[in-house]
Amino acid sequence: MISPLAPVDQMHLEGLAIKREQLRRENPQADEIQIQKLLVKWLHDRPLDAPGRVRAL
């Protein structure tokens, strides 16, 4: 049985992949570890649409 939130989870993962690619374009010298750190920083610094914790993958 597929979770009703499966499409939301998939969109979240796709959004992270898009942001990761943007960070790679903006920081061509960065390695994967640096890109991951930038992604996590972006996740924690961005304004949220609801209170709660950010889930980083």
Please tell me about this protein's structure.
The protein has 57 residues and is mainly α. It has 2 helices and no strands. 0% of the residues are buried. The model has no long low-confidence stretch (mean pLDDT 87). The chain starts with 5 loop residues before the first helix and ends in a 12-residue tail after the last helix. The protein has helices at 6-26, 32-45. The chain is globular and about 40 Å long. It holds the Pfam family Rv0078B.
Keywords for this structure?
2 helices, Rv0078B
Low-confidence stretches: none
Principal-axis shape: globular
What is the C-alpha radius of gyration, as a whole number of Å? 13 Å
Count of helical regions: 2
Q: What series of H and E elements makes up the topology?
A: HH
State the total count of DSSP E strands: 0
What separation lies between the terminal Cα atoms? 23 Å
Multimeric status of the protein: single chain
Largest sheet: none
The residue-averaged pLDDT reads 87
- Structural class comes to mainly alpha
The residue fraction in helices comes out at 55-70%
Per DSSP, what share of the residues sits in E-state strands of 2 or more residues? under 5%
Task: Write a concise synopsis of the structure shown.
By secondary structure, the protein is an all-alpha fold. The protein is built from two helices and no strands.
Would you spell out the secondary-structure blueprint of this structure?
Elements lengths: L5 H21 L5 H14 L12
Pfam families: Rv0078B (PF18993)
InterPro entries: Rv0078B
